[in-house]
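look at this record:
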Amino acid sequence: MNISGLAIGIAAAMLILLWVESQFSWNKQFNNLSQIYQVERHIPQNGEIKTTSVGPGPLAEEIKNKIPEITFAAPVATRGGLLVSDGNKHLYFDGKATNQDFFSIFNFHLLKGTLKNIFSHPDKIVVTEKVAKAFFGEGNPIGQSLKLDNETSYTVQAVIESLPDNMDFDFDILLPFDLNEPRFSWLKDWGNSSPRTFVSIAPNANVLKINKELRKALKGKQDQNFFSLYPFKDMHLYGEFNSMGQPSGAGKITMVRLFSCIALAILLIACINFMNLSTARATQRAKEVGIRKVLGAKRRILIFQFMGEAIVYATISVLFALVIVRLALPSFSQLIGVPLLMQLFEPAHLFFIVGICLFCGLIAGSYPALFLSGFLPINNLRKQKINGAGSAGLLRKTLVVFQFSLSIILIIATFVIYRQIQFTKNRSLGFNQDQVLSIPHAEDIEKKYPHVRQSLLAINDVENVSMCTSTPYSTTRTTTNLYWKGRPESVKTTIAVNFASADFLRTLNIPVVSGTQFQPSKTDSTAVIINEAMARQMGKEGKIGSLIQWGTEPTNDKYRIVGICKDFVHDDIHALQPGPMVLIDDENGETGKSLYIRLRKETNIPAALGQIKTIFSSASPDYPFEYHFLDEEFDELFQAQTIKGNLSMLFGGLSIFISCLGLFGLTAFMAEQRTKEIGIRKILGASVFSILRMLSGSFLKLVFLAGLISIPVALLFTHNWLQQYPYRITVRWWLYGSAILLTVIIAATTIFFHALKAAKVNPVESLHSE
């Protein structure tokens, strides 16, 4: 039993540590990694500093020209959902728009063609091996033509190796980034943001000095905001900033640390089981030690023997653990969404395996090796046991308390993580996502939107139709360049901007609290609807009829507020309140990206989808019909958190299982040791219940004590962990009590099995040898 418990614990720790190892491998593929930085933008607002990774379009060129230490600078704008076609085949791929410096910052593996001066020609593109094989198979793609979004033809000039999964940005196609192109012209304004900016600095450059120079270089363009460089190698694990615009040291590293602690806790619990059962059995070997010493065995030989036996048992456990890992790895990889490999002969893996064998073996073998071997043979032989058995019992009790404390802490952590995920998932979104069909990449529909809308509304199962530039959960356009009467120019507020057709609010069931919605029959490109957060931000100007202006120049576009809608979640699902947002009237769907269709209740969904597909395919025959429901998209937002919750429950339950496995073994050992005592007690009239209480009472007291010890530690952990979520639960006392009660019930069930078995044994059988 000690071998099986240790094997399960080691296997669980190995699986977690393989995932931890994979997280540290992100963004490590580039030669000059220490010189690559992302430019972060810091925006003071409402007494805090908001940090974002997106910035103005001209930023890269400006800082490269003005700061000598920045050797290369590249904007990277997302062109997601590109329709790529060669005349016959039409497929969607993810694209990025960038400049020539991008290839000097990141050294991608070139397979075919050349990257030299590639973006000096506006019609040249770079594709990955995946795109090349999709369209050209094993043929030569260089010089071949591909059309993007059914608009512009580009010539393939280079093929690079497909990007690995462990990178913080992904693309299949690279296009030239040109601010003069209509698609990107809005980014000329320094108040608008969309692309990320990456730079490569000189080898001996001082980053703190560059951060100071960024303020000077952007004076007059971004006076209220400031910028800083953040290491690209740290983005995946540490890419979060506090409310003062400083790196907080948080990010995915929080999850890595959490599960590293869980792995360590499970490993300790398994090792404690191994030690407890080993030391318990060791006390029975006092007579053996006495006889061996009488026959001339030296203490050194006995120490080597006990240590060797323990290491052999630990090695067998590790071998079983490797088998478990090999069998469980595919399912575990699927559960966490990360492909993991167990490379047995990797130095780090070998070091871990050997280290576990030695650690468990030396710790478990230390008691019999050092303690039993030190007693005089006559004492061992005369008493059949040693006086140190009491200290061994105290050690076992201490270890039982320790392992159950760890288990209860893990269970409490699991409860808190699960409740926080459910709390956020069940929050009021401000709109109704049920029965809403989302069709992304609907660019081709934009030109025919009024006709397509009428055709869709003619379907009995369709209640409403609209278009919008981004999904309700994620706004892709933000600006600090919207002004209104009375707004000080020094005050910068990040405002989400969406272009939406009429009926967008009706389609999502978002109430209008003041004014009107956009009118389908009255297109007004100057009409806007703001949310309540924007109205609060505008103060007394946050009312119907007020004007909002893009920029401060008198000739810039002006918009008139025609309605105020209730706040709805549109940016950060974990934020306490939604941020300011402006919806601009776009009745003809000219800037739409996604088509939203609300289906009626009790709809025959397969039949409705068939009719919708027919209309879509007729209006846009070159675009593949892809769709999903908004509630499915919402669930995808919680994929990482759901994985975290599932893993916590899995390993929290496993820790209790391993602890109870040890308790099961110790109870069996204790019952075996006290067989004659139980027989005598039953002859003297003891009831089964009194014997159950005698055998289980001491262990249950230890579990209760473990619960009391675990509470302050768990309280500290849950408090600190929840601080990363502005919208968070309040942890009640009953949650701690429930975790302790659950552990006591499971432990009691484990103990009672052996205790009841021992209590029901016929005393004649227990005492027949006497």
About this structure: DSSP finds 23 helices and 24 strands in the chain. The radius of gyration is 34 Å. The longest strand covers residues 70-85. The mean pLDDT is 82.
